[in-house]
What does this fold into?
Amino acid sequence: MAAEQDPEARAAARPLLTDLYQATMALGYWRAGRARDAAEFELFFRRCPFGGAFALAAGLRDYVQFLASVLPPDTDPAFFEHLRALDCSEVTVRALPEGSLAFPGVPLLQVSGPLLVVQLLETPLLCLVSYASLVATNAARLRLIAGPEKRLLEMGLRRAQGPDGGLTASTYSYLGGFDSSSNVLAGQLRGVPVAGTLAHSFVTSFSGSEVPPDPMLAPAAGEGPGVDLAAKAQVWLEQVCAHLGLGVQEPHPGERAAFVAYALAFPRAFQGLLDTYSVWRSGLPNFLAVALALGELGYRAVGVRLDSGDLLQQAQEIRKVFRAAAAQFQVPWLESVLIVVSNNIDEEALARLAQEGSEVNVIGIGTSVVTCPQQPSLGGVYKLVAVGGQPRMKLTEDPEKQTLPGSKAAFRLLGSDGSPLMDMLQLAEEPVPQAGQELRVWPPGAQEPCTVRPAQVEPLLRLCLQQGQLCEPLPSLAESRALAQLSLSRLSPEHRRLRSPAQYQVVLSERLQALVNSLCAGQSP
Amino acid sequence: MAAEQDPEARAAARPLLTDLYQATMALGYWRAGRARDAAEFELFFRRCPFGGAFALAAGLRDYVQFLASVLPPDTDPAFFEHLRALDCSEVTVRALPEGSLAFPGVPLLQVSGPLLVVQLLETPLLCLVSYASLVATNAARLRLIAGPEKRLLEMGLRRAQGPDGGLTASTYSYLGGFDSSSNVLAGQLRGVPVAGTLAHSFVTSFSGSEVPPDPMLAPAAGEGPGVDLAAKAQVWLEQVCAHLGLGVQEPHPGERAAFVAYALAFPRAFQGLLDTYSVWRSGLPNFLAVALALGELGYRAVGVRLDSGDLLQQAQEIRKVFRAAAAQFQVPWLESVLIVVSNNIDEEALARLAQEGSEVNVIGIGTSVVTCPQQPSLGGVYKLVAVGGQPRMKLTEDPEKQTLPGSKAAFRLLGSDGSPLMDMLQLAEEPVPQAGQELRVWPPGAQEPCTVRPAQVEPLLRLCLQQGQLCEPLPSLAESRALAQLSLSRLSPEHRRLRSPAQYQVVLSERLQALVNSLCAGQSP
It folds into this structure.
């Protein structure tokens, strides 16, 4: 299991990372002689985030890692002897596979085991699942807006809510549909593809008077003598400036020196950050001079980055300059140098950058994907549904905070085109619904049932941990990412659209509805 | 240093937790022979968060811990030999003390040392400082709204953006003015006072038919025989129901059993969660019955919690019931049982709960303090200001993204009443401004200077690490919390108010302004 090699996750998912009331309640259960009562909790959310109609389930690899670790270690005497012997060996978990579509009220996790133990799991499980699912969902929205072609780079580590938030964000934004992350640790620990360019400080750190210890660069083919790249770029600069109608003194010499330094270090991966001084009078001509010098040696520059101003308009203009220069200097590959943009890009800005005809290739997103500013919390909850085989329900006077009682099964009912029609919750002991069979189901709050005849029925919850043992290997992060994209592609357009979508229904079986009614009426089931 | 005993911070603040471009730039510097050039960066933000006019500086204990750890470990051959030998032994850091007021453009950190090393520090320092300062500022706003009397409990771990986000949030919301946290790990590692109540699942897990293994409770004084608490509560229930005009069958027996179980476990810290079924017909009479039974044994119940509905109105009604019951049953302490409320409390809801005459005592806040939904990122930046003793500036066509060049000193200029008038940045080599002296300073974007005669002058940046060595012990978290409250109390009301405050000015000395002008004009300084 990959997670076992992840010291970061191990450190973060520590038993003491919990709310104090879990420990006080544990003592309460124990004093009441109920610590080992069989109990079942469900983890779910009540409303889809971001005003959409779907969420992605995520966080599996983190909470499995957490559950594999032992519970409370270094504590006090007395009842703590009981705690000391605790572990998750009697805990069973069913879960929505990572990357599945998740809807309100459908459990992302069902956790059953001794009452005291599964109560203690509340806080860490909520913490590990909610943010992971929120970020994955947020990333999926951004991918839907960007379309399949644009490359999305997550670069939010510095904006994350704590270092571990950064690691979680990088992992699950990749799962949700991003292509890569700037976060090196996410690459090392989680296998997320990493990518990066250069910062303005790299550019401003050069004045142009620096003398590199070894200015020579060998040709890409490896044959022939090395060339002084800075001198070669200076020669090209004159041609570029003449072509662009600029004075050769205009481009900043420090910026050019920085580009040369970067090209010497990465001749096969040269990128230029264009907006430290002036894109048009400095960044672009300096980039072209160094790229053309590299080209003469057989290397192809890979990209330019813009971090300020009107990104779309500049990209369109820069592409025109690339095309003209490619023709002028007869270097066809220059036409297709990647244009990378960044600078507080949110959903609205992304839609503009991804529009038809946009010349932007790679979009770097930080704050908007990592902190989920539209809604920074999923609002996951973890509720007791059964104790000792008896259903439990929080009735409360606030109807939205009522819970659905009993140990349940969940199914996705699909139409003949394979798109999900609705999810159905039923009691665990009810027979599995069959494809083609007419079902009577209760939409939430309905006065009477409706009928549905699904073309296919998919069970939603997979046995993931049984009596503390992992039942099957976790899918790789890339596999979960593929599942997310497949699931989203099957979702019908009215549920998939990001603003004012049709709400996806989660319905109850007749027997589950009857149980809810009887508990609301104060009758024992 | 407390942070050294903090394995969580050690694990989170890992060298590889950085953006890839830091590593590529490092290679660029190295290849250019500039890895050891003396350089200085500043970490600051450009706009105060949440529409306010101030922020609190925080994160010191985390980044000091980070800097104490070594740089890149397990990497590749070649230039990685250079990296392998790297550490922070040549890094010097000046910082705003934790809990200080921070304003846009004033460095929270000045970091100087070898170019390659201090470049590599960008991402982790931003990550560690920005969120800490954001949360501290957010908590300070909530404290200002709540006033000094209400107790504020942070309970956002389950809503945090990753487990470490939870630890950071708990630590720095305490620094910003909260009284306690539900997060046990923050208590263990950071010394934050922890507090907690009980969850609805604890209540719903009881049906009322359970038989506790030991139902007897000894009197508080320790003398005399034990009493069957459940039976005693049942007797009190009849009196309470008669007093409240309720049928004795109305209160839920499972809820009462849960309260008894909790009281048996914590007779000196009994609290009731009132809204699992019905506050008025069940939670409150059950609480009173158990509290009065405990009272007979010499124990005082400490509180009740509400988690739904109109919290203020219910608190007012509950206090009336407590007063009436205190008189009826002659138990005066019942009047002052704490009323604890929670349920998605934001700034607006908090203002209502803290209004004159409110009977609410403790306010639990989760999502709103931890995720900072009004603005989930501070937008901290880390910019190069000098290399080899020469000032550096990012000019860029976007004026907001320009930087202030040169190694600088920062001072807070105070009025005769001790309230801060403005912060002043000047070049490091300029003489320290003197109290009572007239200064000519440049407000941002001004066409001409203005004059100010401060009654006091405070230097802002303290030497914190010199050549990799900690210069003085870090203040305790409680000391930083006290500094934050003191600093906020000195801020003038027009800068302190949370909506549409007067903007606090950060001005430049004449020489610094002249340096900016000469670099903008393209002249070497």
Remarks:
- Chain A touches chain B through 117 residues (CB under 8 Å).
- The two ends of chain A are 42 Å apart (CA to CA).
